[in-house]
């Protein structure tokens, strides 16, 4: 997920996306532990997307970034 995609989302959408990515990360970790993971680079991508979303939420909390209005 790119930053321009995140910037177009509302706070509720960002929070939902974050929950989805955390769940996906847990599933990928389980697959990795059982040696069933097809693409190990996906773990890194999901972890970085989680960090991006958490950064945007923190900036919104600190009012450094305006929240998008829900259309």
Layout of helices and strands:
Blueprint: H1 3-7, H2 11-33, H3 41-61
Helix pairs in contact: 2-3
Structural summary, described in words:
This protein has 71 residues and is an all-alpha fold. The chain contains three helices and no strands. The longest helix is centred in the first third of the chain and has 23 residues. The protein starts with a helix and ends in a 10-residue tail after the last helix. The model has no long low-confidence stretch (mean pLDDT 91).
Short structural summary:
By secondary structure, the chain is an all-alpha fold.
* CATH top level label: Mainly Alpha
Query: Poorly predicted ranges (pLDDT <50, ≥5 residues)?
Result: none
Shape: elongated
Which structural class do the helices and strands define?
Answer: mainly alpha
> Which range best describes the helical content: under 10%, 10-25%, 25-40%, 40-55%, 55-70% or over 70%?
55-70%
Percent of sequence in beta strands: under 5%
CATH-assigned fold name:
Helix Hairpins
Could you describe the largest sheet, including whether it forms a barrel? none
Q: Based on the coordinates given, report the CATH architecture.
A: Orthogonal Bundle
Average of pLDDT: 91
Q: Helix and strand succession?
A: HHH
Q: Please count the beta strands (DSSP E, at least 2 residues each).
A: 0
**Termini, distance in Å?**
21 Å
């Amino acid at each position: 997920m790119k930053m321009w995609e995140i910037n177009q989302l509302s706070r509720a959408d960002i929070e939902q996306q974050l929950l989805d990515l955390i769940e996906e990360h847990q599933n990928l970790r389980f697959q990795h532990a059982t040696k069933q993971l097809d693409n190990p680079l996906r773990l890194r991508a999901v972890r970085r997307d989680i960090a991006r979303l958490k950064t945007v939420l923190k900036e919104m909390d600190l009012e450094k970034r305006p929240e998008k209005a829900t259309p």
